[in-house]
Automatic annotation (TrEMBL):
InterPro entries with a match to the protein in the record: Alkaline_phosphatase_core_sf (IPR017850), Phosphodiest/P_Trfase (IPR002591), PIG-G_N (IPR037674), PIGG/GPI7 (IPR039527), PIGG/GPI7_C (IPR045687)
Domain GPI ethanolamine phosphate transferase 2 C-terminal intervals: 442-877
CDD domains: GPI_EPT_2 (cd16024)
Domain of life: Eukaryota
Protein name: GPI ethanolamine phosphate transferase 2
Membrane topology note: Multi-pass membrane protein
Lineage start: Eukaryota, Fungi, Dikarya, Ascomycota, Pezizomycotina
Length: 878
């Protein structure tokens, strides 16, 4: 065996080791970066200040109505559908607030904050997507639901989002849950604008007549689904608000007229808001500012005058701003139960006038403070019983000791004639300091694991670089790839660059494609300057297709200005996309033979099925786009179920992997491109036509053939650019779940996970197959039978391409380069998260970026570029 063969095998072993270390590095770092916080077990008891009687609560029953994604302006401003709610605010029967929702602004962690008053773990973002998860249960944690159940004064009811059932198993006596993610399915099974809410509303009238319950939780999903599909300015938004306002009216009128409900408190709130694009998960003002309204005829005695409707505020801060965690201690006082043990919220002072006795007011505030200090004591070991000199407060060694000292002084002053306003101000300041301390303690990083994870990523990078050096021909054409990798890594240390990362890839892709085109000016008879201009124009269209990032999300783009307002243009381009895909498949078969006779009908049927599913899906998902001739097309397609249509498409793709159609899959126009089309929003389908245009020019510029480093660089910039062009960002709010249930009729974590990944990485998957085409053309040109004039410009690459690698050296070099980028970028992100772990935006910018790095590393790199790419390349060399 020749020495070059040993070198190739050794290089392969190093590359395999490097890729195996990627998930190891990710796991180790995540264990240190996302630890579960220790929580105090059991239910709180009335122990603090037990020598004094507990203040009598003004309410004994609660209706807790959550409208998913209820942004504050949806309720408080002019033009809203919540006219009755505004009338209650005006009359003093409702007290309005803006409840700050900390990132991540998704349902599960927000419900944890609302019910327990604690700070949820960032890992709840992932658990929020897994409906089968049970590890996130709050069955062993204290919450106002647990406290209401412990009172044994009535049953607990739940109608709506089944996230409550997952968080609180065996808590509700009567329940009817609705999946929060199954947002597009057969019409007869599900209508996510209406049926999800009708399923909640149908229970209300009968339950209001019964008096065997003390807590009714209602969680409506329709408004959130409207936002995801068409944004906060959708024509469906105000009608949905009127529907929700009608529910408020029915409940409030029942409170006024039914004797057993006279001491019932109605709370209307959002679990989070939404941004201008209709999404949530990040930390923009719209996402973190849901409405919070307390309603009851009893509130007229204490409510302060409020302006209705409120003047517009671009920061969505209307009336008094409170934290969502403040709900737990406030409900405890209003309904008569101890503050939940892990609460970090502060009692809302606007409700203190319910208790005219000064002693009762001080009791409530001090109970809240001592409960929070119990958490501080458990975390720091500082005791409230320690004697502190009054002059020592402010100069003590730790913040915890200083808080203990200050709380002692406040407790002493509460028994004196100190002004109530002064005491309230000091208590408010103390609570704020305590919350800040516990928030910092919540980020309990394991530094040893952070370092181990980072070191593992660096080792993987070193192995990948060693593999590349052994098998690759290190040339000047690696400089652009190296420059992009280094610049990208530096960007990870700036929050604004992470949020607006798409600009880097748009400009990098444009500059690289322009360079590649013009670099052929003296080496080909074609007109690269003209082609370069065309390529730049195509890239400009790709850049402007979807407005993404954080600063300008929701601003006008091609989709909003042209596609949605001109459905016939959209469908014409979409049909053309499917037609060109079919023609490419047909072209690859040659001019005759049995293979062609078998597969041409197969291609026709498969493309027809795929198009049929997309049209039928759009009629349910975005019916406003089905106009004109599309109505006739929809009627022609029949009434088959969406699940059945999708399953037929996926089955056709699976059949395509069986001989004799398998050779189709060696080309970029097989399942590796049809599947991304199936899993993309209809408004993004024309993007694939632009991708095909770029691919067309890249293949014709390929004279002489692009070298491996150039192919890898092209693949890199276009995969990343296409991800953002299709609406992706580094924020959780941009995760698209609209195609997560194609072909399935129920929840499956594996199926939904795969479909969600393909839907969000459709562009990168498409370009991964495009890179394989260029690599195969490179290999054919370097082989012994390559036509004259099409040989490689690198004699060493040609020599290596015909060694023991059997042509696999080009794929090997390509994957080695990608592994270098992935491990380097992963290392940079880990370093940024470690260095900036105390940064203000660590949980809103850098942590989501780490999650996306996981997606790029494990999903796109290992599964698509390495796995799928390896299979396609191997088939292409047979």
């Amino acid at each position: 065996m020749r020495r070059s063969q040993y070198g190739f095998y050794l290089s392969t072993a190093l590359l395999v080791a490097a890729n195996l270390l990627i998930p190891v590095a990710i796991y180790i770092f995540a264990k240190g970066f996302f630890p579960y916080k220790p929580l105090l077990p059991g239910l709180a008891q009335y122990e603090a200040l037990k020598e004094e009687p507990q203040p009598a609560p003004p309410f004994d029953r609660l209706v807790f109505m959550v409208v998913d994604a209820l942004r504050s302006d949806f309720v408080y401003t002019d033009g809203t559908g919540f006219q009755f709610t505004q009338s209650l605010i005006k009359d003093g029967a409702a007290m309005p607030f803006t409840a700050h929702a900390t990132s991540p602004t998704v349902t599960m962690p927000r419900l944890k904050a609302i019910t327990t008053g604690s700070i949820p773990s960032f890992l709840d973002v992932i658990l929020n997507l897994d409906e089968a998860d049970t590890s996130s249960t709050l069955s062993t944690q204290d919450s106002w639901l647990a406290q209401m159940k412990a009172k044994k004064t009535g049953k607990l009811l739940l109608y709506g989002d089944d996230t409550w059932l997952k968080l609180f198993p065996d808590t509700f006596d009567r329940a009817d849950g609705t999946s929060s993610f199954f947002v597009s399915a057969d019409q007869e099974q599900y209508q996510d604008f209406t049926e999800v809410d009708n399923n909640v509303t149908r229970h209300i009238t009968s339950e209001l007549r019964q008096d065997d319950w003390n807590t009714m939780v209602l969680h409506y999903l329709g408004l959130d689904h409207i936002g995801h599909k068409s944004g906060p300015r959708s024509v469906n938004m105000v009608p949905k608000q009127r529907e929700m306002d009608g529910i408020v009216r029915e409940i409030y009128e029942a409170l006024e007229t039914q004797a057993h409900l006279e001491s019932t408190l109605l709370v209307l709130c959002g679990d989070h808001g939404m941004n201008d694009a209709g999404n949530h998960g990040a930390s923009s003002a719209g996402e973190t500012s849901p409405a919070l309204v307390f309603m009851s005829p009893k509130l007229k005695s204490i409510a302060k005058p409020a302006t209705v409707p409120a003047p517009f505020d671009e920061d969505f801060q209307y009336y008094t701003k409170v934290d969502q965690s403040d709900l737990a201690p406030t409900l405890g006082a209003l309904l008569g139960f101890p503050v939940p043990k892990n609460n970090l919220g502060a009692f809302i002072l606007d409700f203190l006038p319910f208790w005219s006795n000064r002693r009762d007011q001080m009791h409530l505030l001090l109970s809240n403070a001592k409960q929070i200090f119990d958490i501080i004591a458990a975390a720091s070991g500082v005791s409230l019983t320690t004697a502190y000199a009054s002059s020592a407060c402010g100069d003590l060694p730790t913040v915890a000791e200083d808080l203990a000292c200050e709380l002692q002084k406040i407790s002493q002053l509460a028994n004196t004639q100190t002004s109530d306003d002064d005491l309230k101000e000091r208590m408010s300041t103390w609570l704020q300091r305590a919350q800040e301390l516990m928030s910092s303690m919540a980020s309990n990083y394991d530094m040893s694991k952070l370092i181990q994870g980072g070191v593992t990523a660096v080792v993987a990078l070193a192995l990948a670089m060693a593999s590349l050096i052994m098998v690759g021909d290190i040339r000047w054409n690696l400089i652009p790839f190296a420059g992009i990798t280094i610049l990208y890594g530096i960007m990870m240390f700036a929050s604004s660059y992470v949020e607006e990362e798409h600009h880097f890839w748009y400009w990098s892709a444009s500059a690289w494609l322009f360079y590649v085109t013009l670099s052929r000016a003296n080496r080909t008879k074609r007109t690269p300057a003209v082609i370069a201009i065309v390529v730049l124009v195509v890239m400009r269209l790709i850049r402007g297709w979807n407005q993404t990032g954080q600063k300008f999300a929701g601003e006008p783009d091609i989709v909003k200005l042209f596609m949605k307002s001109n459905p016939q243009l959209l469908w014409s381009l979409s049909f053309l996309t499917y037609l060109t895909t079919a023609l490419k498949l047909r072209h690859r078969l040659g001019r005759g033979g049995l293979l062609r006779a078998i597969t041409v009908p197969f291609i026709t049927v498969l493309i027809t099925l795929a198009l049929s599913f997309k049209v039928a899906f759009c009629s349910e998902d975005s019916p406003e786009l089905i106009v004109g001739f599309m109505e006739a097309v929809l009627g022609f397609l029949g009434e088959a179920s969406l699940v059945g249509r999708a399953q037929a498409v996926f089955a056709g793709i699976a059949v395509g992997m069986v001989y004799p159609v398998y050779c189709l899959l060696t080309q970029p126009y097989g399942w590796s491109r049809l599947n991304p089309l199936t899993q993309s929003r209809v408004t993004n389908l024309p993007l694939f036509l632009l991708f095909q245009t770029l691919q067309f020019f890249l293949e014709r510029l390929d004279e002489p053939k692009l070298e491996t480093a150039e192919i890898s660089t092209t693949s890199l910039v276009l995969q990343l650019a296409s991800f953002f062009a299709m609406g992706g960002t580094n924020a959780i709010s941009s995760v698209d779940l609209s195609n997560a249930y194609n072909g399935i009729s129920g929840y499956s974590v594996v199926a939904v996970g795969v479909l969600t990944f393909v839907g969000n990485f459709a562009g990168p998957i498409w370009w991964a197959s495009g890179a394989n085409v260029l690599l195969l053309r490179r290999r054919l040109a370097s082989g012994p039978a390559a036509p004259e004039g099409e040989g490689t410009s690198s004699s060493s690459e040609k020599q290596q391409g015909n060694t023991s690698g059997g042509g696999g050296v080009y794929y090997h070099q390509h994957i080695a380069l990608w592994t270098v980028f992935i491990t380097a970028s992963l290392g940079f992100v880990m370093a940024a998260c470690t260095a900036l772990r105390t940064h203000l935006f660590i949980w809103t910018v850098f942590s989501p970026k780490y999650l996306y790095s996981m997606g790029w590393s494990l999903g796109q790199h290992l599964l698509v570029n390495v796995g799928m790419g390896g299979v396609l390349y191997w088939l292409g060399t047979r």
